[in-house]
């Protein structure tokens, strides 16, 4: 292909892209990846179609245009809700909650009703059901356990539900959901485990509580950013990544954005017989809505696709010690990250990611094994595909900030992906 593995790992085969400018001698080093993560995080919350998501898309559009790609925007609509009051209170004690999307508001006066633990099979008529989830790194209300729990309390007459997202941080964890025009039949709130005790005590005794979910919402426009580099090869290498998320998403999204942007910038400078197509999707929180739109309307057909790599969540988020009530940061990456690859490229990824915790245990890419957008990619018939996913400890927490990631953690995964691409595209 005209470049060496040594050039690849140095990031200098044909020059590389620094944020906002081309500098031929600059490597994709720790500082470069740190700069990308910081820039991404700096745009604020990334809720689909919001200011942070839109600004991120515009920034990436500029970067890829400067790298030589022809960019476009695929528009679609997403739900949104901006809360003016999101709270739960009992006996003078109050806590901030997260409204679960798509949001069914209570109105500014709120809903006052007895709190009841969602245990057993007794009637919950007129109650606010409190559902304490088992300890897990929660991500989506499409999880069968959550779906079943909500269906159960509605069937028993609850007028609202409060989900306690028990997990390692004690934070309230926003949950992905299916984007439907019809909202859930009753209000659903998410309560931080660290704030739950007064409400659990009240629910055990059936004391009344007040739930308020007030604000403005509806549908708003969002867009997938696409970028193409046509070389006339007739077959395409696709690199996809989600860019939206509930909050700042430094570890969840920022690490993947940096790996994706480095690979995209590097690929643009390499000779090769394949066209290149990139997509940074919005709508991720709504069960991969943007990815589904891209697959249905824009993506190259499976028979025209040489390779699809999906750069998903938790590429290189920080690991933490769980010692007492506080998490303590570790210098390495969270090993609860996953890499899947189809049989034809399995060995290339296993060689490239050897020694990287979590990623070194490559799994076969199947619909049953996959998560996120990769599930839909495989189900659509893309036979040569790989993808990354995982939930780090602050996944979907408002505290997923720059403490959760660094350029030094991201760079090894970034180099490994480029090494895998060298092997695969030389086949």
Radius of gyration, in angstroms, nearest whole number: 22 Å
Question: Helical proportion?
Answer: 25-40%
SSE order in H/E notation?
HEEHHEEEEEHEEHEEHEHEEEEHEHEH
Q: Per DSSP, what share of the residues sits in E-state strands of 2 or more residues?
A: 25-35%
Reported for the largest beta sheet, the result is: 14 strands, mixed
Poorly predicted tracts of residues: 1-26
| Global outline | elongated
Q: Distance between termini?
A: 10 Å
Q: How would you characterize this protein structure?
A:
The chain has helices at 5-10, 30-42, 51-66, 144-155, 197-205, 250-267, 289-297, 346-352, 372-379, 407-425; strands spanning 16-18, 21-23, 70-90, 93-96, 98-99, 111-117, 128-132, 160-164, 188-191, 208-229, 236-242, 275-281, 305-311, 318-323, 326-333, 337-341, 363-364, 385-390. The strands form 3 sheets. Strands 3, 4, 5, 6, 7, 8, 9, 10, 11, 12, 13, 16, 17 and 18 form a 14-stranded mixed β-sheet that branches. A two-stranded antiparallel sheet has the order 1-2. Helix 2 (30-42) packs across helix 6 (250-267) and helix 2 (30-42) crosses helix 10 (407-425). The chain has 10 helices and 18 strands. The chain is α/β, with parallel strands linked by helices. The N and C termini lie close together (10 Å). The longest helix has 19 residues, at 407-425.
